[in-house]
Design brief:
Length: 477
């Protein structure tokens, strides 16, 4: 088995820790406060995806809305947000169910794929970022690039499944076989059929990660309406569904049950990626046992419940070195939300949502993002209920704790964000003591993908660190 190489960034990278060397002490409970609540008050938000759209060094947000409300692109101007969707050309009024940022053409500017519903009779759009200087602008090139798919789009992922150095596109549908588009430079080629990943089951969530450590990205698909889930092992020339063999398919569920938002994390700090699957019915947590096999331990961790859970997203919001989990669910109808912020104490999880000042919930979009660059994770939500909103919460973690983190941007040798699935591990300098691990986003959560630095909380560790970056090896065709 040939594994992907590690790039080791030595002691100098410790300076990327906000505030420098990390200090010891137990992190206090943070409080969250709403940012520009009037701007983020509109209901109907579905996907929310973050990236540095204008290249100014901070993260901007795209929010897709239910039918009749224009999509928004919030430009981050040093912590203050302005909606520029209309002037930049991305203010669609069509029911928007998925969005993903990725630099598909390698020009150093992130582009945006937007997925709609079939009933809208609107084909999906690929907005190329054609900005020049200070003028931010997008133009739809989906027809020309042969990715203008039509269907009940639910998850979009930019990934390099064939390790040839450019971004390919995966699109999951709830009402049609999933699609995989290979990036051939001038246009994309549909290859899901020949590769065996054109799954007709009703897919609503997907995440890519190298579960078996062989140097390429595999695919987990979360399926609804009683359909079994899939884990598609990437064998290079073909994908093989091994979910049943590994006990991860959740087969035998009734039509009223199914899975939604999967998300990956190294929950036990052993250096490999585990998998949480938010579901209608019981949630699942698959611990990666390191030999290509998993053990389901959601009940053991206190994560099995959650009513009808939809999105999920991991983030160490208190920088204590243990990743925490936000899950949105509802009881018997979507308007009766029941959100959870599961704090991880190192062994189990406890819901602390009310205690930390989170009053508004989500139904679709959940993103942890350090939008103000202070070293702690803020929280971005999207809620499509009539009385919902799409709030942005600032994390008011004290500076003594917010500085206990690393923010690691992932870029290629030309400074382009084109390495989704890259793994980052942080060690105590000169040792094999693993302090934390993260992955450059591949669609984790539900209906969105981000181009954001990998955030790792360092807890009470004091000293310098080594950072090891494991990227998938480039292979020539």
């Amino acid at each position: 088995m040939k594994c992907a190489p590690f790039i080791v960034l030595m002691l100098w990278l410790s300076a990327m820790a906000v505030g420098g060397v990390v200090r010891s002490g137990a992190p206090p409970s943070p409080q969250f406060e709403l940012v520009q609540p009037d701007l983020f008050a509109a209901s109907g938000g579905q996907p929310n995806a973050w990236a540095d759209v204008d290249g100014d060094g901070d993260l901007d947000e795209f929010v897709g809305f239910a039918a009749g409300k224009a999509n928004r692109l919030y430009r981050n101007d040093r912590g203050t947000f302005v909606d520029v969707a209309e002037v930049t050309g991305v203010a669609d009024l069509t029911d928007t169910r998925a969005a993903a940022w990725g630099d598909f053409d390698g020009d150093g500017r992130v582009d945006l794929y937007v997925g709609f519903t079939r009933r809208s009779e609107t084909k999906n759009r690929l907005y190329r970022n054609v900005s020049a200087g200070a003028t931010l602008r997008f133009t739809d090139v989906a027809p020309a690039m042969a990715v203008d798919a039509l269907g009940e789009t639910r998850q979009v992922s930019w990934i390099d499944y064939d390790n040839d150095g450019d971004l390919d596109l995966f699109v999951a549908f709830r009402d049609a076989p999933n699609m995989l588009f290979r990036n051939d430079g001038a246009r994309f080629t549909s290859v899901a059929g020949p590769l065996g990943v054109d799954d007709p089951r009703r897919t609503v969530g997907a995440v890519w990660f190298d579960y078996d450590g062989d140097g390429d990205l595999d695919l987990f698909t979360a399926n609804q309406n009683g359909d079994a889930n899939g884990l598609w092992r990437n064998d290079g020339s073909r994908f093989v569904d091994v979910a049943r063999d590994l006990g991860m398919d959740a087969a035998g569920r009734p039509e009223t049950a199914g899975s939604n938002g999967p998300s990956v994390v190294d929950v036990d700090n052993d250096g490999d990626l585990d998998l949480f699957v938010a579901s209608y019915g019981s949630n699942f947590f698959y611990r990666n046992d390191g030999d290509g096999k998993f053990t389901e331990i959601a009940a053991q961790l206190g994560l099995a419940g959650g009513d009808k859970a939809t999105p999920s997203r991991w983030g160490d919001y208190d920088n204590d070195g243990h990743p925490d989990l936000y899950v949105s669910s509802y009881v018997d109808q979507p308007i009766k939300e029941h959100d959870y912020l599961f704090h991880h104490d190192g062994a189990r999880f406890t819901d602390v949502r009310a205690a930390v000042g989170l009053t508004l919930g989500a139904t679709h979009g959940v993103q942890w993002v350090d939008f103000d660059g202070d070293g702690d994770l803020d929280l971005s939500l999207a809620n499509n209920n009539p009385n919902g909103a799409h709030p942005l919460y600032r994390n008011r973690l004290p500076k003594s704790s917010s500085t206990r983190s690393l923010s690691v941007p992932i870029k290629d040798e030309k400074g382009r964000a084109r390495k989704p699935g890259t793994e980052v591990r942080v060690y105590a300098a000169g040792t094999t003591r693993l302090l934390g691990m993260g992955i450059f986003d591949t669609g984790s959560g539900y209906c969105s993908q981000n181009v954001m630095p990998v955030h790792i909380g360092l807890g009470a560790f004091s000293g310098r660190v080594d950072v090891r970056v494991r990227e998938m090896p480039i292979r020539k065709r």
